[in-house]
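Appendix B. One record, verbatim.
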Amino acid sequence: MAQTYSINLSGMREVLFAGRIVTTGIYKQPIHGEVSVGKLGVAGVAQADLTVHGGLDKGAIDEPVRDDEAEPSPQRSDSGRV
């Protein structure tokens, strides 16, 4: 049976990258409670670059955890486990 371990989301954040300020949503944190997922993605989430994220032709990331993993790896805490 499938089990959800963590749903990680991020808001927009400006960071210094390669000598310039860029907007990113890469720094995801676990949320608690229910979330709605619709045709355009997860409710309440915005994407910085709509040419590659968001919209009807994009998807959410679902990363499976192997049966022999007791829990998600802490190194993957920035991933979008759904």
